[in-house]
């Protein structure tokens, strides 16, 4: 019901602001200032409820609900409250209040849409002419004029047409239509508040005051202008969403204000009186209302630190005694209301807000309901589940109590102290089904140091493990699911290029040290997939011989020619990236991606984690780091490059045989730069 309390509080402030306007500002001639006051005060009325001054509202004292003072239970002989006094039928008007409010809101919204459609209908059918940013629209059926945003509706043969145009242009330039639309929307939201209707009327009246004042200041005599309004205002029906020059209902007040003496400039200082009014309402919002929608704390209370009464003695580990865990006694046949201490009186009071039902009927008065016993079953619902089942009335949770012989406590009965440790019976341990532990991949290097090499995307109960350096594994898991690279990328995106591990369980235990769990394998115990057979180097195309430069020749940097790149033999029609793999059962999982710049028919391979190789190629060219940087730039070619060409290249969609080891690939020796000093 927070939405209802918020609306009521905002409309209360709106009433106060409008009362201030009627008392001090309504009859003054500073029309623009009054206009802005009505706009800003109306918006402020809906902002104030969400603001708080924390220092005016001290932090409440919270009772110890875990170990409350025991009170003797009322036995079966105690008098019980009759079920009829605490329980009513399930029908509650508050359940239907929100649909009723929403239905009326939709009706007012439909009315606004209908008014807009009438203006659009006239605009579509009428003859139009453009004058600057303003569109003139001819009215044939009505001898009147009105404006809506940049649309000016006017009869072509209207008397004193120039005066009318000047009047309506004031409305257009000052964007008075925005004001009208703002209060129309406000009326839709607060349809139950009659003050909105008065504010709408006053804002339109201020618009006409402003336009009348500027029209007469342009040289037109006030008496002639008043007579012109009187002659043309009878028999004209005003349009709700527009500023209309001829309006019989407000004609008398407009003429009176035309002839009224101008208010002195110092009278504008009355507007400053609204500032302490806002401060008073902000204090009232903090202190007088108990609410959950005060989201913004402007001046929070400073936290107070309490000095310890005495120094904590040092005790040995075996001397420390912890209190036994709290166990709800007979939670299936007893229910106790929530309680706490009142800040002012110090007395124990009921603070129960949950939606409580007994045999399908809601408890009407929680102030006289203290709990039940001898129930067959007591079922608790969290906030989310309660709202889904019962609606917003159960926003604090719900309790369902069922039983044929339910008895009621006739006074507030606090929960008893927890039982002795040896009386608590814990459920038997769950039998392990399959793998219930997980440790990240790690190995022992040649120096005997344990190092991590796991780069998978690890998720525990739906949350990603952010810091893998301090994550050493978990035990007591209910379920562990491993996803390969394509499956993990499809589910978690590019962050899961190396695969993913999903771990779930309600009683997970985190491994606290890298030495816990099974010992990691040594480097020589890790099995890598077999290498690819070395290609036949005899059929490699050798670069043509280069004639030596003439004596005394000193080449520039850009004139140095490198030998042509190595081209794979004609019988080499496939290419596999140089990745490092880890064996997981029958699968190989990449743990290091080929860093070379791979180009296929002129286009670079962007995501090499999804690239397993190609076949049916026509040529494969390997470029060294120096050659690759010259062709593709320093950043792309710093690790070398591979150029693959072919008209019918086929992409390998799954992991191919593992690549060769680094020491099996022979690159051509680098060319030494000529020394310019020797030439």
Automatic annotation (TrEMBL):
Domain Peptidase M56: 159-258
Keyword Transmembrane helix: yes
Coiled coil stretches, renumbered: none
Renumbered residue ranges of the record's region Disordered: 514-558, 655-679
Keyword Lyase: no
Origin: domain of life: Bacteria
Keywords, ordered alphabetically: Membrane, Transmembrane, Transmembrane helix
Transmembrane segments: 6-24, 36-55, 100-120, 180-199, 225-246, 267-289
Entries under Pfam families matching the protein: Peptidase_M56
Compositional bias annotation for Pro residues: 517-533, 656-673
Name used for this protein in its record: M56 family metallopeptidase
Taxonomic lineage: Bacteria, Pseudomonadati, Bacteroidota, Sphingobacteriia, Sphingobacteriales
């Amino acid at each position: 019901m927070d939405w209802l309390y918020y609306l009521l509080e905002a409309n209360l402030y709106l009433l106060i602001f409008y009362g201030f306007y009627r008392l001090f500002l309504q009859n003054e001639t500073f029309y623009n200032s009054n206009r802005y006051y009505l706009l800003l005060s109306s918006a402020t009325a809906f902002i104030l409820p969400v603001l708080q001054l924390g220092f005016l509202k001290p932090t409440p004292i919270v009772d110890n609900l875990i170990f409350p003072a025991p009170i003797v239970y009322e036995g079966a002989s105690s008098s019980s409250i009759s079920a009829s006094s605490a329980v009513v039928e399930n029908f509650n008007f508050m359940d239907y209040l929100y649909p009723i409010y929403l239905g009326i809101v939709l009706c007012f919204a439909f009315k606004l849409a209908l008014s807009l459609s009438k203006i659009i209908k006239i605009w579509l059918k009428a003859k139009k002419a453009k004058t600057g940013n303003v569109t003139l629209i001819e009215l044939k059926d009505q001898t009147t004029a009105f404006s809506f945003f940049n649309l000016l509706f006017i009869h072509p043969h209207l008397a004193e047409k120039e005066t009318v145009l000047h009047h309506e242009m004031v409305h257009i330039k000052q964007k008075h239509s925005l004001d009208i639309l703002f209060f129309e929307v406000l009326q839709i939201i607060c349809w139950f508040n009659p003050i909105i209707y008065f504010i709408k009327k006053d804002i339109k009246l201020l618009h006409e005051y402003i336009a009348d004042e500027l029209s007469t200041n342009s040289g037109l005599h006030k008496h002639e202008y008043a007579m012109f309004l009187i002659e043309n205002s009878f028999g004209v029906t005003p349009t709700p969403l527009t500023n209309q020059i001829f309006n019989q209902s407000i004609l008398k007040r407009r003429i009176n204000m035309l002839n009224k003496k101008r208010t002195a400039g110092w009278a504008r200082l009355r507007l400053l009186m609204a500032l302490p009014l806002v401060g008073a309402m902000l204090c009232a919002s903090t202190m007088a209302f108990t609410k959950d929608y005060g989201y913004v704390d402007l001046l929070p209370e400073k936290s107070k630190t309490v000095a310890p009464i005495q120094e904590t003695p040092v005790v040995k580990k075996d001397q420390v005694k912890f209190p036994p865990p709290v166990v709800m006694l007979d939670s299936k046949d007893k229910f106790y209301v929530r309680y706490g201490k009142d800040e002012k009186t110090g007395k124990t009071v009921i603070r129960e807000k949950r939606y409580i039902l007994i045999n399908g009927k809601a408890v009407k008065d929680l102030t006289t309901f203290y709990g039940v016993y001898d129930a067959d079953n007591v079922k608790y619902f969290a906030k989310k589940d309660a709202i889904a089942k019962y609606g917003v009335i159960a926003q604090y949770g719900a309790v369902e109590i069922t039983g044929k012989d339910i008895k009621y406590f006739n006074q507030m009965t606090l929960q008893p102290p927890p039982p002795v440790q040896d009386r608590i019976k814990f459920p038997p341990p769950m039998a392990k089904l399959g793998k219930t532990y997980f440790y990240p991949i790690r190995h022992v290097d040649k120096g005997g140091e344990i190092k991590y090499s796991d780069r998978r995307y690890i998720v525990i109960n739906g949350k990603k493990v952010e810091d893998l350096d301090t994550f050493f594994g978990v035990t007591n898991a209910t379920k562990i699911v491993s996803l390969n690279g394509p499956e993990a990328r499809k589910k978690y995106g590019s962050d899961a290029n190396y695969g993913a591990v999903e771990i779930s369980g309600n009683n997970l235990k985190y491994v606290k040290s890298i030495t816990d769990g099974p010992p990691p394998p040594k480097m020589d115990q890790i099995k890598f997939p077999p290498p690819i057979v070395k290609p036949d180097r005899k059929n490699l195309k050798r670069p043509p011989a280069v004639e030596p430069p003439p004596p005394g020749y000193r080449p520039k940097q850009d004139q140095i020619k490198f030998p042509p790149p190595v081209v794979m033999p004609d019988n080499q029609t496939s290419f596999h990236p140089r990745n490092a793999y880890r064996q997981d059962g029958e699968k190989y999982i990449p743990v290091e991606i080929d860093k070379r710049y791979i180009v296929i028919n002129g286009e670079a391979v962007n995501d090499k984690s999804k690239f397993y190789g190609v076949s049916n190629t026509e040529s494969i060219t390997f470029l060294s780091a120096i050659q690759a940087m010259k062709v593709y730039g320093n950043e792309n070619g710093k690790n070398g490059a591979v150029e693959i060409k072919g008209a019918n290249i086929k992409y390998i969609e799954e992991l191919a045989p593992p690549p060769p080891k680094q020491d099996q690939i022979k690159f051509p020796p680098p060319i030494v730069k000529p020394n310019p000093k020797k030439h």
